[in-house]
């Protein structure tokens, strides 16, 4: 079985072949620069949609950095310094952001059982509910937009997103380990 999206990196270019089920009409060469430009063009559009839906669900005062912190804490509790390092912001900036979420009752500080001098930041049930409702709202907003894609396009986008997740996850891991 062949891959849905056959991407071959050659000398700064990506060769993209269309999915077989839609008939290979040929391939088109896309430079890494063009790919980067397209990614940078789509990110503000997507971020704008996500931000609007987050505000719609959680209130106009809710910011994307706050939403990202909630998302981060759904995976695991973290210390303030661990969260600041992961989000790549100063400890002071993260402390102020977290305090707003604590005041709203969305995050709780719990003593770290491994180090009593530290506190772990946990998502509260209320925080988890706000995050999950925002996620559902974002999905409801994106669903009709993505449904405009043809089946072959969806397959290509899906495969591309998996590839991007792999690359960016590796980059995130390297950054968090100080490489």
Explain what this protein looks like in three dimensions.
This protein has a three-stranded antiparallel beta sheet. A three-stranded antiparallel beta sheet has the order 4-6-5. The radius of gyration is 20 Å and the shape is globular. The chain has one domain (6-173): Orthogonal Bundle (Arc Repressor Mutant, subunit A). It is of the alpha+beta class. It has six helices and six strands.
- Beta-strand percentage range: 15-25%
Q: What fraction, in percent, of the residue positions are helical?
A: 55-70%
Largest sheet: 3 strands, antiparallel
| Radius of gyration over C-alpha positions, nearest whole angstrom | 20 Å
| pLDDT averaged residue by residue | 82
CATH superfamily assignment? Winged helix-like DNA-binding domain superfamily/Winged helix DNA-binding domain
The succession of helices and strands, N to C, reads EEEHHEHHEEHH
Distance between the termini: 37 Å
Total helical elements: 6
Instruction: Supply the CATH architecture.
Output: Orthogonal Bundle
Q: Class in CATH?
A: Mainly Alpha
Oligomeric state of the chains present here: single chain
Number of domains: 1
Going across the biggest sheet, name each strand in turn.
1-2-3
DSSP summary, beta strand count:
6
Structural class given helices, strands, pairing?
alpha+beta
């Amino acid at each position: 079985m062949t891959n849905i999206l056959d991407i071959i990196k050659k000398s700064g270019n990506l060769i993209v072949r269309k999915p077989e089920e839609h008939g290979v009409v040929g391939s088109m060469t896309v430079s890494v620069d063009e790919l980067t430009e397209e990614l940078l063009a789509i990110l503000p559009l997507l971020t704008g949609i996500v931000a609007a839906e987050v505000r719609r669900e959680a209130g106009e005062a809710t910011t994307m950095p706050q939403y990202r912190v909630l998302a981060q804490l759904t995976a695991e509790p973290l210390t303030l310094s661990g969260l600041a390092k992961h989000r790549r912001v100063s400890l002071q900036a993260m402390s102020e952001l977290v305090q707003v979420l604590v005041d709203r009752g969305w995050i709780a500080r719990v003593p770290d059982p491994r180090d009593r001098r530290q506190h772990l930041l946990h998502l509260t049930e209320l925080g988890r509910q706000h995050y999950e409702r925002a996620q559902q709202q974002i999905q409801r907003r994106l669903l009709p937009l993505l449904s405009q894609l043809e089946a072959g396009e969806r397959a290509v986008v899906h495969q591309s997103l998996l590839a991007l997740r792999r690359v960016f996850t590796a980059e995130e891991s390297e950054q968090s380990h100080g490489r």
